[in-house]
Amino acid sequence: MHDMAQDPTPSTTVAGCLDGAPFLVRHPVHADLCDDVVRILGYRENGVALDNAVEMAPLAVPLILGFGEPFQIALGRAPASEDRYDSFTSGLYPGFVLMNSTGRAECIQIDFTPLGARRFFGIPMREIAQRMVHTVDLGDRDIVRLRDRLGAETDWRRRFGLVEAVLRRRLERARPQHGAVAWAYERILASQGTVRIGALARSLDCSRKHLNQRFHEEIGIGPKSTARMVRFNRALTMARFAEGPDWALIAADCGYADQAHLVREFRAFSGAPPSALPPFP
């Protein structure tokens, strides 16, 4: 049970409890990586299985390098027995993800920003968007070797050191972000998903079609879907920190046409109306 906390770095956060809940090691993302990497986590289950755990339209691209039993994961539906993944990635998906496990999974998870994922993987993001991809199917020997080295290592500090070394090496030699897409993505974030896509295209002196094509190449989905995800995540955050969420007020604050519009978006991105959301952690 204490293996997960073995010799962590001083700034690493270890979470877990005695009731069999999984242990998490939250490794800090250093300043030279933070433009591309959102978080780095170590995860180990202690016998308690995930049962249709839900993730709702996350604005990050995960790379999971597993060295325990595989997860069962599916996009937009309950996972079936064949939906087994131990080491995998998945690009942005404007919907919900359901996950099961056996209670014996163990992995390191690296969450990239959408533009950071493009730089790390070095492939058009449309190739992994809205789908689950085994790492071996990426054809990237560097990632496969990293997974093998992590699986052979038992010390979490050394595991994180291996991950950081690969991140730095790949990101230092990666091509720069596409300037127009990076600018447009930042505007979407700054507006909390309410900016008009036509206005972005006009500011960049390009057509909406061209901007959409560039977003699919660099981010994996179009700017409209990206803005919808950003707005949904803002609504979700507001609900998380509210005592008895006022959904009509949240809908208005987040720029939805009305509460019915917000409900439709919640069904699309979480699989349930706001009133049926699972408890927030």
Describe it for me?
The chain is of the alpha+beta class. The chain folds into 2 domains: 3-173, Jelly Rolls (Sandwich), CATH 2.60.120; 179-276, Arc Repressor Mutant, subunit A (Orthogonal Bundle), CATH 1.10.10. The protein is 37% helix and 18% strand. It has 9 helices and 11 strands. It has helices at 114-121, 141-152, 156-173, 179-190, 197-203, 208-218, 223-240, 247-253, 259-270; strands at 13-15, 23-27, 37-44, 53-56, 61-66, 71-75, 84-85, 88-90, 96-100, 106-112, 132-134. The strands form 2 sheets. The chain has a 7-stranded antiparallel β-sheet with strand order 1-2-3-10-5-8-11. The chain has a 4-stranded antiparallel β-sheet with strand order 4-9-6-7. β1 (13-15) and β2 (23-27) form a beta hairpin. α2 (141-152) packs antiparallel against α3 (156-173) and α4 runs parallel beside α7 (223-240). The radius of gyration is 19 Å and the shape is globular. Residues 1-10 have low confidence and may be disordered.
Uncertain regions: pLDDT < 50 for 5+ in a row? 1-10
Sketch the topology as an H/E string, one letter per element.
EEEEEEEEEEHEHHHHHHHH
- The number of helical runs is 9
Give the radius of gyration. Answer: 19 Å
**CATH-defined superfamily of the largest domain:** Jelly Rolls
What is the spatial order of strands in the main beta sheet? 1-2-3-10-5-8-11
Reported for the largest beta sheet, the result is: 7 strands, antiparallel
Q: What's the β-strand tally?
A: 11
Mean pLDDT: 91
> What spatial form do the alpha-carbon principal axes imply?
globular
**Strand-pairing-aware structural class:** alpha+beta
Domain count: the total is: 2
- The appropriate CATH architecture of the largest domain is Sandwich
Helical residues, percent: 25-40%
The separation of the N and C termini measures: 22 Å
Q: Briefly, what CATH class of the largest domain? A: Mainly Beta
